[in-house]
Specification:
Helix 1 crosses helix 2, helix 14 runs antiparallel to helix 15 and helix 21 crosses helix 26. The radius of gyration is 28 Å and the shape is elongated. It has 26 helices and 18 strands. The protein has a six-stranded parallel sheet, with helices on both faces. Strands 1-2-3-5-4 form a five-stranded parallel sheet, sandwiched between helices. By secondary structure, the protein is α/β, with parallel strands linked by helices. The structure holds thiamine diphosphate and magnesium ion (MG). Magnesium ion binds next to loops.
Length: about 675
């Protein structure tokens, strides 16, 4: 690669791209950490994309009809920060670039959603960006079908490296995007054949072009340093109805001594080598210095979007009041006014009827109420629709032929589903929910973690939530999953006990705008435990007194979901022996811990012995068993300590000792 030739062929382009390269070099050197090589390798592609194609308005970073850009190879974050600075995003000041990777800066090591305008999703865990992009593209198609292309007409662009394409989740994403013919999605593959350990041929010999083509993608190949070829490939990608992959042959750390080597992947901080690279670029400026003419050209790229934005604004204003109001409501994530009343009515009916029903079925009953009034919901399942009960009668299936459908058959792709739901949620205007068996949250967990980190209000409908699923056995029975999910910051786990609590759980999940929710739902039928209607959402407090002790309160039993009935049955046994027992239903430990201390003490006063019951491991319950301020309580736990087994559910509860009798026995033992 002769840099002098590149410079001579396209002098203005060259200097524009060199600005990205040198800012990345300078910021990584200042931080003494980070990744210089990827921005240096992809700078030409970024320059053409932002310079000529991307629809964006730096003065209005959240404009809903902007194109979305996802840096799946998130370690190259300095590329994105440099571009945001150069195009004039107010938050992306030069000082922020100088503070790259420092405490409190808007420029963390990997791009983080919510930290700086212009970062549309958090990336860093390789593969997440490309998988999330599928959700952005789905959201665009769905909203365009509903509101028309005058107000919804944008594209999704992704940079992805060797690492992203080696990660398994990329296959789920590529297959789904190809199948759904998401034609406004374009992936630039940073094909530099280098990763951390060395050349990619150490570990991979996949024909990436063939792989994408096999899933129905439009595939091209370009010299990733030739601006004309890049431009032509982008034009062709736009013209093709399929999702596009542009295989860009690039040189990691272009122009640096470390070019084309694994050393080029990381922080290139050697001052002399850095200076030599700048000289090769013909860049005779100090650290973080951008010559005026280069800055002006970049600001020109930034200004381009203002016109498009203005034109969009007038089309938006021309919508009917009803359509405009609806768009404003859904982009503001406000639930429709009718929702709360409908949910209350369902709660009353369920309390009155007192039907015995599995909470996965209760969830379907609630969705039948929600989906018709809340048109922004978009449901789905990873091939367990009939088991997760996620499809309601009015949704229709979202497909290549029917963009108006609101139900996605994600296929057997839990990880891809979760990542796509992140994209849908972050895009705005839609509320995604999706189902699988709770045991397979393990397959979705990396994306669930990003939902929590990004504050994306995705709803995970996780059914078959314990040994109560029975015969499918221990491979399918969650044991440690509730504990693992509850350990995740900014994630609410709700495990309702009956239809009323399930309705309350859905109401909470839909009201949430900054937190994902896991609904843990039973396969097996459960008796109604809430027989007295309350307008108030009791689940919102996380735990509440479900049944009060008849005489002197000597024990408190607490349980969630399917074990609330066990607590009630144990209470009956103990009350017959004149042992007063309070039963506390605990649909969410996290929400309970967020209540004020006075409320927590009212529900769990010191004194009575405590037993918690849940068909999972004990760990998360210790917070409630040990008492406020760690004051020792006499307490015990009824639950699981090992994997489950294959047998009918009733047999399993008996064999694993999760019964009313076993609970009563623990209470008797604690009382001495
Ligand atoms: C899921 C995950 N595993 C591992 C890493 C650590 N990691 C960061 S970059 C990288 C190599 C990526 O190679 P490539 O995508 O080719 O990037 P390049 O070196 O070309 O910039 C690895 C293993 C990560 N960020 N995410
Ligand atoms: Mg690479």
């Amino acid at each position: 690669m002769d840099i002098a030739d590149l410079r001579a062929a396209h002098p203005d382009h060259w200097m524009n791209a060199a600005a990205i390269r040198t800012l990345a070099l300078d910021a990584v050197a200042a931080a003494n950490s980070g990744h210089s090589g990827m921005p240096m390798g992809m700078a030409d592609i970024a320059t053409v994309l932002w310079g000529k194609h991307l629809k964006f308005d730096p003065k209005s970073p959240t404009w809903p009809d902007r194109d979305r850009f996802l840096l799946s190879n998130g370690h190259g974050s300095m590329l994105l920060y440099a571009v945001l600075h150069l195009t004039g995003y107010e938050q992306a000041t030069l000082q922020q670039l100088k503070d790259f990777r420092q405490w409190g800066s808007r420029t963390p090591g990997h791009p983080e959603y919510g930290h700086i305008d212009g970062v549309d999703t958090t990336t860093g865990p390789l593969g997440q960006g490309i998988a999330t992009s599928v959700g952005f593209a789905i959201a665009e198609e769905s909203l365009r079908a509903r509101f028309g292309d005058k107000v919804v007409d944008h594209r999704t662009w992704v940079f992805a490296g060797d690492g992203c394409l080696m990660e398994g989740v990329s296959q789920e994403a590529i297959a789904l995007a190809g199948h759904l013919k998401l034609g406004k999605l374009t992936v630039f593959f940073d094909d530099n054949k280098i990763t951390i350990d060395g050349k990619t041929d150490l570990a991979d010999s996949t024909d990436q072009q063939a792989r994408f083509a096999a899933s129905g993608w439009h595939v091209q190949e370009v010299d990733g340093h030739d601006p004309e070829a890049i431009d032509a490939a982008i034009e062709a990608a736009k013209a093709d109805p399929r999702p596009s992959m542009i295989d860009c042959h690039t040189h990691i750390a272009l122009g640096h001594k470390a070019q084309d080597t694994a050393k080029g992947h990381g922080a290139l901080t050697d001052a002399e080598q850095l200076q030599a690279a700048k000289e090769a670029y013909g860049w005779n400026y100090g650290p973080f210095e951008i010559p005026d003419e280069v800055k002006q050209r970049w600001e020109g790229f930034g200004a381009r979007g203002a016109e498009a934005h203005k034109a969009w604004q007038s089309r938006f204003e021309a919508l009917s009041d009803r359509q405009r109001g609806e768009l404003e409501r859904i982009y503001a994530s406000e639930p429709p006014k009718a929702l709360s009343g409908r949910i209350k009515a369902l709660k009353k009916q369920a309390a009155d009827e007192g039907k015995t029903v599995a909470t996965r079925k209760s969830s379907e009953m609630v969705l039948e109420v929600i989906n018709p009034v809340m048109k922004e919901t978009i449901g789905g399942s990873a091939d367990l629709t009939g088991s997760n009960n996620t499809l309601t009668s009015d949704l229709g299936v979202f497909s290549a032929e029917n963009r108006s459908g609101r139900y996605i058959h994600y296929g057997i792709r839990e990880h891809g589903m979760a990542a796509a739901m992140n994209g849908i949620a972050l895009h705005g205007g839609l509320r995604p929910y999706g189902g699988t068996f709770m045991c397979f949250t393990d397959y979705a967990r990396p994306a669930m973690r990003l939902s929590a980190l990004m504050k994306a209000p995705v709803i995970y409908v996780m059914t078959h939530d314990s040994i109560g699923l029975g015969e499918d056995g221990p491979t399918h029975q969650p044991v440690e999953h509730l504990a693992a999910l509850r350990a995740m910051p900014n994630l609410t786990v709700l495990r309702p006990a009956d239809t009323v609590e399930t309705a309350e759980a859905w109401e909470l999940a839909l009201a949430e705008v900054t937190r994902p929710t896991v609904l843990a739902l039973s396969r097996q039928n459960l008796p109604a435990v809430r027989r007295k209607h309350t307008g108030k959402n009791l689940t919102a407090q996380g735990a509440y007194v479900l049944a009060e002790a008849e005489g002197k309160r000597r024990a408190i039993l607490m349980a969630s979901g399917s074990e609330v009935q066990v607590a009630l049955a144990a209470k009956a046994l103990l009350e017959a022996e004149e042992i007063g027992v309070r039963v506390v239903s605990v649909p969410s430990i996290e929400l309970f811990m967020e209540q004020d201390e006075a409320y927590r003490k009212r529900v769990l006063p010191a004194g009575p012995v405590r037993v918690a019951i849940e068909a999972g491991v004990r760990a998360p319950w210790d917070r409630l068993l040990l008492g406020e301020r760690g004051r020792e309580q006499k307490a015990d736990f009824v639950g699981m300590t090992d994997f489950g087994a294959s047998a009918p559910a009733e047999v399993l509860f008996e064999e694993f000792g999760i019964t009313a009798e076993a609970t009563a026995e623990k209470v008797r033992a604690l009382l001495g």
